[in-house]
């Protein structure tokens, strides 16, 4: 077998939400360097444009920015309409955009809980639903389209920190992934999730600053995740190599949730 072709994402059309920074930027970078045509979205047009310009210096693929606030269903639909004007199909949808909120149990705001659940769960469903015509357009048994939902190890095990909405939302993402996978696989759309551990993102910046030594000490491989770790998993799922994987939740955490000393 041709190993280079096995993991190729060359010329695939990809949408990465929350792609202007953090894990989303890491994923987008991997696809661009793999020769894909990548669209990234985020709320802030300036940040989105800056990241796209940076990734276009890397090649050989291309990156395009389309700003959108996914909390707003109308703006989400505008994003899909804009991509539909430019593309006849979508090979890969990476639902990465998300948010977190930490507060003591007795003080946890209802508005924050609703906001996190809406963006982290409801809008994953909404965007996948809206992208179905694009995902179906070119999907075949030999070349299925892919949906990759970014969950978290906090949706697998209970976190130490009081991020109630975040952990609940990520557990929901994992289960939604399995439900969608069973429905969409017969239509040649493979749905999977990745549950990352600690990666150096803006969302994790404060936590790593305050608790980095303790977090890393609980990771058996002794480090946080790298861009290659998360991008490589997405590339596997999007390439011929991942063509028989559907409904999986792949944990990418350096073994952290297997470390009994963290319990």
CATH homologous group name: NAD(P)-binding Rossmann-like Domain
Task: Assign a percent range to the helix content.
Answer: 40-55%
Rough outline:
globular
Number of helices: 8
Beta-strand fraction estimate: 5-15%
Number of domains: 1
Keywords:
alpha/beta, 7 strands, globular, 263 residues, 14% strand, 45% helix, 8 helices, single chain, Rossmann fold, 7-stranded parallel β-sheet
In short:
The chain is an alpha/beta fold and 263 residues long.
Describe the protein.
The protein has helices spanning 3-6, 22-33, 45-56, 73-86, 110-137, 164-184, 202-217, 227-238, and strands at residues 13-17, 37-41, 62-65, 92-95, 145-150, 189-196, 249-252. The protein is α/β, with parallel strands linked by helices and 263 residues long. It has a single domain (3-262), classed as NAD(P)-binding Rossmann-like Domain (Rossmann fold), CATH 3.40.50.720. Strands 3-2-1-4-5-6-7 form a 7-stranded parallel beta sheet, sandwiched between helices. The longest helix is centred in the middle third of the chain and has 28 residues, at 110-137. The protein is globular. The model has no long low-confidence stretch (mean pLDDT 94).
